[in-house]
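Incident log, support desk, overnight shift.

02:14 A customer reports that sequence design results differ from what the structure should imply. Their input is reproduced verbatim below. On-call engineer (initials T.W.) acknowledged and began investigating.
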């Protein structure tokens, strides 16, 4: 098992994408990156002043889904070219970021995938890359949010296009 922490905008979106990927054992919404653990809660993080970012912790079996594929999915299902913004979600808490848990194994893969996007695709990637910090699990009502709230307006508008892109571009990695 490996773990990687990904911030690609609202954690409801990123969570729903990775819950569909085979080899992903668990996806947990949370907060990371801020200095004050007491401010790692939805109300404070939404202020954009805590330094935290909405993230998901993805626990996956690399023999089923390689880290490079996890990263390809991540970069394909959010905008890694716009700083502190994903669609209508604006603020540093929505920045594009990867927190790696293994510098020797994960960091070179992350750098290679970002380099490929920059060099081969010509994209100006602004995604931050950092070693893992303290992960703070988000409130219970944020866990499995899309599956529990599929008719919520934000969920209906923002998440289905991401899932559609996932199904189209990564169908071989979808859970059956």
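02:41 Re-run completed on a clean worker. Output:
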């Amino acid at each position: 098992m490996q773990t990687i922490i990904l911030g690609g905008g609202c954690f409801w979106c990123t969570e729903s994408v990775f819950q569909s990927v085979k080899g992903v054992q668990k996806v947990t919404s949370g907060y990371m990156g801020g200095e004050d653990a007491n401010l790692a809660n939805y109300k404070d993080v939404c202020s954009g002043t805590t330094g935290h970012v909405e993230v998901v912790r993805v626990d996956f079996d690399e023999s089923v889904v390689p880290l490079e594929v996890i990263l390809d999915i991540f970069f394909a299902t959010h905008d890694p070219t716009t700083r502190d913004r994903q669609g209508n979600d604006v603020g540093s808490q929505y920045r594009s970021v990867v927190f790696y848990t293994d510098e020797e194994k994960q960091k070179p893969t992350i750098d290679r995938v970002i380099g490929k996007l920059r060099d081969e695709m010509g994209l100006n990637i602004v995604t931050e890359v950092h070693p893992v910090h303290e992960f703070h699990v988000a409130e219970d009502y944020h866990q499995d949010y899309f599956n529990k709230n599929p008719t919520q307006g934000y969920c209906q508008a923002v998440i289905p296009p991401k899932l559609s892109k996932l199904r189209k571009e990564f169908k071989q990695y979808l859970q059956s």
